[in-house]
Amino acid sequence: MRILLVNYEYPPLGGGGANNTLEIARRLAGRGHQVAVLTTRFRGLPAEDSDQGVRVVRLRVPRRQIYQCTPMEMVGFMAIGSVLGPWRVASFRPQVALAFFSMPSGPPAWTIARRFRIPYALCVLGGDVPRPFRDELTRLHTMAKPVLRLLWREAAAIVANSEGLAALARAFEPRCPVEVIPNGVDAQRFRPASADPGRPQAPAGQREVALLTASRLSIEKGLDRLLRCLAALPASLPPWRLRIAGDGPLRGDLEAEARRLGLAGRVEFPGWQDKAAMPDLYRQADIFVLVSSGEGSPNVVLEAQASGLAVLATRVRGTEELIRPEETGLLVELGDEEALRAALARLIGDPALRGRLGAAGRRSAEACSWDAVAQSYEALCLRLAQDRSLAPRGFQFLLHLIR
């Protein structure tokens, strides 16, 4: 088949959703399909090139940062992709399209599907589904809801990466059936530090306990709560250090909060880390913490588990499906800072518990391969490509939009 993937971010741009697209695209190409990706062009990147058998087509869209995209920049991709996308992939002539993130990738996928009379699937990953908590995308979700509903109804399939996100998607648009294809992880690339021959390992009692979190530094990630809980830990615990990998609009505020709480010497902000740097970042840690208000299916949890880390997270959709409490990690209720503080103290003070959770998490992650994920997407594409009646109707879509 000729399969087109549309995502406004593709490495080196973006984070988890971009990496998902890369892994799926490469493996579909490895299974013998012709695969192209339509994405954003960033300074220093060519307009078109090849990535391990994947044709990468990039649109020149205004964008300031490699690691994040503002709502207005997303609107730019929607507009430019909808106009130029069909022309840029004309020579490829796709048979089916997969849009990763219904917003902003959905509108370009719709225009391409309409142009070539092919079906398209919307692969929702979390931030593109209106959710019950407020964040920086809330205003854009509110304005885009009518268009989102129509894009979803025109799609031949809606795919979520977790049961929790699927439930949220069904609540948003009950008319659309939603299927689940979970994320994967490269368990060879993300591996415990003990798996590296010759790497020196200091005994746990002779070094600081290293905590790590990796995310966009925005309000829904709850990092202010994490800092408050760390500041309240008893002094009798072993020494510890937190590394907050990532960047975003709250970085300055979080750095100031760490200083205010007296944590400046214990909390590091190394900034955004590219894909190549992440495996070693995990291997330098003992505990991974994710305290966000909601997720789709966070790649960072799978990567941390594959790296043999004890994982502590809030019990929210997506995340709770990846962690079996007291077996592969610890879960605390969202907003319960006392429970979070107690769980942090427990993990920092108990190396045996960290080792047990990390080993079980590693075994769990080894079962989540990207090859299996790609096979599921391959089956989806085969099913859709066989029925051209699933292509968007277009005229009815525009009538609904006018109304």
How many separate domains make up the residues? 2
CATH first level of the largest domain: which class? Alpha Beta
User: What is the count of helical runs?
Assistant: 13
Query: How many strands appear in the DSSP assignment?
Result: 14
Widest sheet: strand ordering: 3-4-2-1-5-6-7-8
Strand fraction band? 15-25%
**Mean pLDDT over the residues:** 91
Radius of gyration: 21 Å
Estimated structural class: alpha/beta
At CATH level 2, the architecture of the largest domain is 3-Layer(aba) Sandwich
Helix content: 25-40%
CATH topology of the largest domain: Rossmann fold
Biggest β-sheet description: 8 strands, mixed
What is the approximate shape? globular
Walk me through the structure.
Helix 6 crosses helix 10 and helix 9 crosses helix 11. This protein has an 8-stranded mixed sheet with strand order 3-4-2-1-5-6-7-8, sandwiched between helices. The protein has a 6-stranded parallel sheet with strand order 11-10-9-12-13-14, with helices on both faces. It is globular. The chain contains 13 helices and 14 strands. The protein has helices spanning 16-30, 71-88, 102-116, 138-154, 163-172, 223-231, 251-260, 278-283, 299-306, 337-349, 351-366, 370-385, 395-402, and strands at 2-6, 34-41, 48-51, 54-60, 96-100, 120-124, 157-160, 178-180, 209-214, 240-245, 267-271, 287-290, 310-314, 330-332. The chain has 2 domains: 2-184 and 370-402, 3-Layer(aba) Sandwich (Rossmann fold); 193-366, 3-Layer(aba) Sandwich (Rossmann fold). The protein has 403 residues and is α/β, with parallel strands linked by helices. The longest helix has 18 residues, at 71-88.
